[in-house]
Amino acid sequence: MIRKIMGKNTVEEVATYQHKRIISITTSSKELLNDYQRKGFKVKLADKNEMNKIVQSDSHQGIIAEVLDEEISFRTCIDQLKKKNKSVVVLLDSIQDPQNMGAIMRACECFGVDWILHTKNRGTPITAVVSKVSMGGSEIVPRSTVSNGVDAIKKLKDEGFWIASLELSEKAESVYTFDFPDKICLVFGSEGEGVKSLMSKSSDFHLIIPMLGRIDSLNVSQASAVVLALLRSKRGRDI
């Protein structure tokens, strides 16, 4: 599968560490054209209006790349995580907003998440906007698409994972006092509906971020960053 990524940091990340994935680069900058041609990439020059049409966005920072998608099977995910005593998986169910999806993937990369799972046909695909907002996180953290989030949860449980869903409910406990298990899958639901009922019922724990102000919640990308930062603070670098 071929898809597009955009943004200077994202393209540079792939060009530096996964250069074989890049099929071609389009840029509006002669400086970037010369730079990437010197590195051996196939590059063409285009004006910004043309580039806007290619990715349906004007936030490309003057550079777009066509890349081979590195979608990894869920079976491979399971096989890889079997080898680790401590693992953090993030399951994204029905995240609709590309900005939120990208921001969550950026947080996942920053806080050492081992794998990202996202549900098929329920949320945004990994678009050029997602890649740009993620600052390369969408290309760095291993990820898999799953057809059924509840089935994925069951398979993770079979491999010793505990499931914790972030949700606004009376049964939820504070993330500030939660003792994160060594092998954990954190579930984040859609912007409007939150975690689906069946996924909530399949979870071992239900977590909430207590609010101190008059606004009663964060958006899903902010919430994911808070939870992952708390997990990191309790484990140090060993996550």
Concise summary:
The chain is an alpha/beta fold. The chain is built from 10 helices and 11 strands. It has 2 domains: 67 residues, 60s Ribosomal Protein L30, Chain: A (2-Layer Sandwich); 162 residues, Alpha/beta knot, CATH 3.40.1280.
Order of helices and strands: EHEHEHEHEHEHHEHEEEHEH
Largest sheet: 7 strands, parallel
Shape: elongated
Per DSSP E runs of 2 or more residues, the count of β-strands stands at 11
Fraction of residues in β-strands: 15-25%
* Class by SSE composition: alpha/beta
Q: What order do the strands of the largest sheet run in, or round the barrel if closed?
A: 7-6-5-10-8-11-9
Average residue-wise pLDDT: 91
User: Uncertain spans, ≥5 residues at pLDDT below 50?
Assistant: none
Quote the CATH topology of the largest domain: Alpha/beta knot
What helical percentage do the residues reach? 25-40%
CATH architecture of the largest domain: 3-Layer(aba) Sandwich
Oligomer designation: single chain
Domain tally: 2
The CATH C-level name of the largest domain is Alpha Beta
Radius of gyration: 19 Å
Separate helix tally: 10
CATH H-level homologous superfamily name of the largest domain: SPOUT methyltransferase, trefoil knot domain
Rounded to the nearest angstrom, the distance between the terminal CA atoms is 31 Å
